[in-house]
Design brief:
With 327 residues, the chain is of the alpha/beta class. Helix content is 47%, strand content 21%. The protein has 10 helices and 11 strands. It is elongated, with a radius of gyration of 33 Å. 36% of the residues are buried.
Amino acid sequence: MSLTGFTSPAWFLLLIVAALLVAGYMLALRARRRRTLRFANLAMLERVGATRQGMVRHVPPALLIVALILLTTALAGPTAEQRVPRNRATVMLVMDTSLSMEAADIPPNRLVAAQRSATSFVRGMTPGVNIGLVSFAGTASVLVPPTTDRKGTIHAIDRLQLAESTATGEGIFAAMQAIDSFSAVVGGPSGPPPARIVLMADGKQVSPTENMNDPRGAFTAARAARKANVPISTISFGTAHGTVEIERRSYPVPADDAAMRQIARISGGDYYKAASAGQLDNVYEDLGEQIGYEVKKADASKPWLALGTLALIAGAGSALFIGQRLP
């Protein structure tokens, strides 16, 4: 645990008291030694000296000083960065269901592999995150609005069906509309929960046109997402050698890595490449860590308080055991 600051550093002024106590203790020892040498019988002092506890007698005051330092640190309110589950966030999964997802370059095919990984992602997400689902081919459909009900989202993922065309921009716009509607309902005094879109696609946009800067294109949607402060994490799924068979003809369907990278860049999100089911699992696991958890400054005074209390008890106990009295 590394400390990141203190909420009440003024309490450290008590360390001046600790320093004064140490100085007073040293002066008291020196004065006691002088009195002893002045008035004691030297021969008797030599005989008794062999039975004195020596350095052990300094243990109780030393422990009490340590206890004071530890308890002062606890009072100063130390904080540390801790990874805690998010208690409010919105994530929209946007999944490509165009015919290119039938390519078997990722067995058994891209869609089935994507369904399996997305299901694991949803199941592993922390309870406070609301997850929704959008599927898109020629058009986009909000299958599940943001919800903490994991069963409904998983059921919708299992029922995804392939269709013609690829309207990537429409998928992003549909996700943003779902986020806006949800935020309007749950937004409180602290504002709507932070939101993110996770876009998983393999093919190039072909609807409404191949121009991604079209008013309904993917790049236009990415710019709108950035303006709304909704980053898009893109997953380019598939290989450069994927093919699908339509009416007994084979068509190449390479993953469009460049477009997916650009969508992420424009929106302020992250880009991931997944050319296998294993890589896709790792990507979703990474996203789950990013989205499901956040790093916060949390109170870290308990260890200092516990150690200070133990040192205080040890100091008092050793004083009674060694000197038969409290210091």
